[in-house]
Structures are given as C-alpha cells and as structure tokens.
Amino acid sequence: MNIHEKYMLRCMELGKKGLGTTAPNPMVGSVVVHDDKIIGEGYTSPYGGPHAEVNAISAVLNKELLKQSTIYVTLEPCSHFGKTPPCADLIIESEIPLVVIGLQDPHDKVAGAGINKLRDAGCQVTVGVLERECREHHKRFLTFQEKRRPYIILKWAETQDRFIAPDKARRNDSPEPFWITNTYSKQLVHQWRSEEQAILVGTQTVLDDNPKLNVRTWEGKSPIRIVLDQSLKIPSHFHVLDNSVDTILLTAEQDSSKYLDGITYELLDFTKPVANQICNLLHKHSISSLLVEGGTRTLQTFIDEGLWDEARIFKGASKFDSGILAPEISGKLIHSEKIISDTLSILQHD
Questions:
Q1: Considering the entire predicted model, what is its pTM?
Q2: The dihedral sign for the CA sequence 208, 328, 333, 305
C-alpha cells in the first residue's frame, strides 16, 4: 500500500459516517495531510450542509500549513454552486498545492470540471487512487447518476422450507405478523432502514402486516415510505398513511378526491412493467437508494425486470410447511454470516 492509498482508505472510513444523512449528495470523505500527518479531516454533512472538503479544511488549526499540504478526497470536488459554494474554489483559495482524488464525479454539473478548474489554478491533481474501492463506496450516488435510478437493495426473510409468509388460513387464526427472524436480525434491518433514502412495499404486505416502515430499534432517520396501492385498498387508519414519515403512494387511481392530505400520489400504468416505472419516478424525486421489503410479488417484479443491485436474504430456523414461497433469484454470493439462529446471505446482481 502506498501513501496515497493509506490516506484514501481513511477518506472512505470518514465518508461512511454520512451514510443515511447525505443523500441525494454522495457520502464523501476528505483528509488534509502535512508532512505525513493528518491535520484536518471531515465528511459530508447532512444534506444541505458543508461538503467533506469544507469540513476537512475547517478542521485545520494552522491555516498557513495548507500551502504545503495535500488534500485527499474520495470524489472529485464540485465546481458549481448548489446548496453550498464550489469545493474546488475553496481548495484554490486555501492555496493547497496537491489534490488526490479517488474518482471523477459523473454528475453532469461536475464531470471533470472540478479537476480542470484545480489544474488551471496551478494545483497538481492525481485522479484514480483506489478507484475501484471508491466506486464501491459511492455505489448509491454512482448508480443514480449513471443508471438514472436508485441503488436497489432487495430484502426478505424466509423459513427453512423457503416460505416468506404463512398461508391465509394460518393468518386468519393469528392476524399478527409472523416473525421468521430473531431479535438481532430485526434490529439489523432497522439499521439498514436508517441507511437508505427510501423503503418500498406492496399492497398485500401492508394489508397483512400493517407495518410502520420506520426506524425504531436503531438511531437514525426513517426512510421515505414508497407504497404500491393500485386501487387505493389500504384503509386510511393504517400506519403507512399516518403522515409520521414522508410517504409516496403509487397508484392507478386518478380521482384525486380519494387522495389523503399529506401523502404524495404518483400514477403508474400497472399494465406495463412496474419496476422500471418506479425507478423513473424515484429518480424524479431525487431518491438515490431504495430498500425493497416485499412481499414476494413485489420483490419478484424487480428481479424479473433486472432492476436490483443487492439482495439481503435471511433464513430463519422455523418452518411453515405451506404458505407464500420466497422469490426466485440468482446472483453472486458476496457475504454470508450467522446471526445466532439466522443465516444472512447477501447476493450481488451479476
């Protein structure tokens, strides 16, 4: 590992601290190094706040040292005015002579303009340090920019005999949700919810379980709720319509007199591929990551249309013998672990 890689790894460690708060901005990390010592570091503030470079430079106590320093950043510094001024301008004003960047920003308002601005001002710029790792780190932002859709994570829990839910007769006897996984797995799911910008479920999941789809057993912001309800079957007193969390309801019902206050309604054509329409709508709403929690029909729609990036699948210890089968999926296994009695497998879309 060379010296540039060492400090870029630190940038990525810092950037992860912004997971779940920076979107739709990328979770950038940055360090300022003088004489092989970090003198300032930072990461992107929650959306609307200062970017990583600003926070790193602000953390430097002796600003005179900036003139003999190197700034490292996981993603090309911005060159345009958005919620905040351009980071490239601040680097130039601070007279930092050396800039090391993980990867170029594909955003159409940046796309090399920040690098060019720095070089034109006399900065020595190095691009592509740990580029593959930085791409993985920025996968949500890059998917949104390059594929024009959110980064999509499918999640479900299945029994040993591959059922995702019991049959209706068993549900009628006991209408409460049937938990397949243990407490620790459930808490992990709430952590995941806090990390993604939105969460999606289908109508039947809401009617069967009346879920809240918020963050409860973990600290963090609840994701935007995305709910499929073609003909507005979900009763108004259900949790997903309680206005406690921003909610977008996807429907075919065009009569706005049936719409509830506080809910955002978007129309879908349910006679055409649904997942692609959802991706287009969420891109319009600047949603860069989506956790799809079910049920099987909804999950399978994303799988069949090839619109997924990760699948996180829990296998619990119980059996249902009958019920609703889990989705059919194939992908590259990139992680597997035991969570007490459960097994978590994470697949990557090939």
A1: 0.92
A2: negative
Active site residues: 53
Residue 113: its pLDDT value, please?
A: 87
Specify the pLDDT at position 176.
57
- In 215-287, which ranges are continuous DSSP H helix? 274-284
Which residues is 313 bridged to in the sheet?
156, 345
Q: Which strands, in side-by-side order, build the sheet including 37-43?
A: 37-43, 29-34, 70-75, 98-103, 124-127
Which segments of the chain have a pLDDT < 70? Answer: 1, 80-84, 169-177
DSSP H helical segments within the chain, as ranges?
A: 3-15, 52-58, 87-93, 113-120, 131-137, 139-146, 168-173, 183-195, 203-209, 274-284, 296-304
Phi–psi pair at 297, nearest 5 degrees? -60, -45
Distances (CA, A) of 208 to 166, 246, 275: 11, 21, 22
Per-residue pLDDT, 80: 65
Residues 6+ apart with CB under 8 A from 173: none
- From CA 151, how far away is CA 198, in angstroms rounded? 10
Q: Which two tokens stand for residue 91?
A: 């680097």
What the block records as the tokens of 337 is 């672990």
Residue type, 276: N
Using DSSP's 3-state secondary structure scheme, residue 230 falls into coil
Q: Is 276 helix (H, G, I), strand (E, B) or coil?
A: helix
